[in-house]
Amino acid sequence: MWVEILCGLVAYKIIRRFFFDDGDDASYLADLDSSHSDLCFAVAARLEKLYNGRCFVGLRIPDPDAGERQHIDVVLVTKREVMVVGIKNFSGFIEADKDGNWSCPTDKKRKQVIIPNPVLEVNRLAASLQSYLEQRGAKLPDGHVIGRVVLPNPNCRPSYNISVQPEVMLYDQWKDLKMDSKSGLLTWIKGAFSGSRSDTQDSVLQNLHFILSTSPMWDRLELKGDKNVLGEFIEFKGRHEDIELLKNLKRSKVSRFIIQKSTLFGGFGRSRVQILYSPRDYRAEGTSSSEWKEISVKQYTEIVFQPLHSKKVRKFKLSSVVSVTLSA
Fold first, then answer.
1. 105 plus 242 within the same structural domain
2. pLDDT of 148 higher than 90
3. In the predicted model, what is the mean pLDDT of residues 136-163?
4. What are 274's strand-pairing partners?
5. Which parts of the sequence belong to the NERD domain (predicted)?
C-alpha cells in the first residue's frame, strides 16, 4: 500500500509540474521587494480618482545639468497644475537637521540613515520637469509645476520641523485627503495656489499628456499577487525555438504584452503559455483589442528584468507574470 501512495504522490507532483501553474510561485517571489513600486501606483490611482487628473508613474526625465536621467515617482497633471510627487515610505521617528537632511531609522538597532533633503529634491525635480516640458514645446507659467512629498506609512512619526513644511503630506493628511467641493482643489494643496489661477486649455492639457506619455520612463512588470515592479526589461530566456518566436518582441516594436493561462497541446508535458502583445504606435496613445497579436511558448520561458533600486538582475517565470509594459 505504501508503494501505491508514494507512486501517487510522485505522479501528482509530475502532473502539477507540467500541466499547472508553478506551485512555488509564492516562495519564488517572496524575497522580491515591490513595496515602493506598489506604493507609487497606489498613490497615483488615488490622486487620479480624487483630483480628476492623470498620473504618470516612473518617469525618467533627461537632465542636462546632472548628465543623467532623473527618476520621478509620480507626476499628476490636472487642468490647474502639474505636481511632482515624491513618495517616502519611512517608518519610525524621522527628524531634519539644520541643512534639511532627514535622519531615519533602519532595520539595524540604533542605526540611522541620512536622506538628502527630500523637499529640496522634489522641488529640484519639479524645476527639471518644467524645463523638460518647455524643451518639448509646452511652456508653462512659473509656479505651475510644483513638488510635494508624501509620507504614506502609518508608522512614520516626523518631527515638528518636518511636519510644518507645506510641501510635506503626513499620513493623517493623506488618509483624510478629499476634494474641496467649492474650489475643486484637494484640501491638502489648495492653499498653494492663488485664486486667480485659470484652468489649462484643453489643447495644452492634451499636449502635456502626449509629451509625458511618450517621455522616457521605467518599464512596468506586473506579477501575480498584485505586485508591480518598476525597472528595465532586458530579455527572454528559454529554449531556442521559443526565443526565435519572441525575438520580435522588442521595445522598438512592442509597447505591452500580457501573459495568459497555460494551455495543453497534445502529449505529456506540452503545457504552453499564450503571450498577447501590442505593436507600438508612436502616433497614438492606447491600443485597441483588434491590434493584439499572439505567440505561444513553453511555460518555463523566463523574463530577465532589472528592478529599480536593485543591483541584482532577476529572472521571472512566465507563470508568475501578468503583463509587461515597455517604455519607448
1. no
2. yes
3. 93
4. 296
5. 35-152
Amino acid identity for residue 140 in this structure: L
Distance set, CA 26 to CA 32, 142, 223, 274 (Å): 10, 48, 11, 21
Instruction: Name the amino acid, one letter, at 304.
Output: V
Residue range 63-67: mean pLDDT, rounded = 77
The residue assigned the cell 508514494 is: 6
Last-in-domain residue among 153, 186, 214: 214
- pLDDT computed for residue 270 by the predictor: 59
pLDDT of the residue at 282: 67
**Do residue 210 and residue 289 come from a single domain?**
no
pLDDT digits (tens, 9 = 90+) for 304-319: 999 998 889 999 999 8
- Helix (H, G, I), strand (E, B), or coil: what is residue 35? helix
| Domain boundaries, position 276 | 219-325
What is d(CA 184, CA 87) in angstroms, rounded to the nearest whole number? 24
Tell me which H or E stretch contains 316: strand 314-317
Q: Cα separation of 196 and 20, whole Å?
A: 61
Please say which residue of 159, 188, 214 terminates a domain: 214
DSSP state of 181: T
C-alpha 44/C-alpha 57 separation (Å) is 7
